[in-house]
Write the structure tokens for this entry.
Amino acid sequence: MGAPRARWGQDPTQGKALAHIPNDGGKWLSGAVVGVLVGAASVCGTAAPAQAYTKENCRSSAISGNGTDYYRTGNGITSYYSTTITTAAGKWNSTSSPGSLAKVTSGGQIVIERYYYSYQWYALSSWTCSSSGYFTGNRGMALNSRTMDPFASWQDRFLIIHEFGHLMGLGHENGLAACKAVMKSDAHTGTSSCSSTNPPYTNDVDGMNAIY
């Protein structure tokens, strides 16, 4: 079994962060894993020249069979965030990407929670990858109320679409212009002109189809 990995909407200040990795019971385990986060940061960025997407090199066994990844919400998820999460999942489901996302009240492979963190990142996804390249155990999405609550609704939606992308196997793609990839690390802040667009974009969907 590989080491836990993490991605976030904005790099933590000076690489210092508290990662929250979900265990199989769906609760968050707190621990200072700066080495993991700094290591993750070093691979979050440049796509190969011939493609407009980046892979995380880990995939969902359910989606590999064109099935469904199930998610559940937990601590701190208000009705506003619940609606935004449902909308974000629906945006992926409306594309030609393989597989789908669906909400459940218990179980599921993805746990989404919201807490107040003093750090500058917006959202953080975490997972463990097996030696065979598949997600194992629960995957987690942590939303930072401190940084996300002041955002416009389109920014929150973009962030959650982005984090779902990580949890299905997509990495950061920063080699494209604004509004061309929701997997850009600054897709939600690059320009307000993106607010009227409808991610995931073609480059994001191409990445999913390349993975699966």
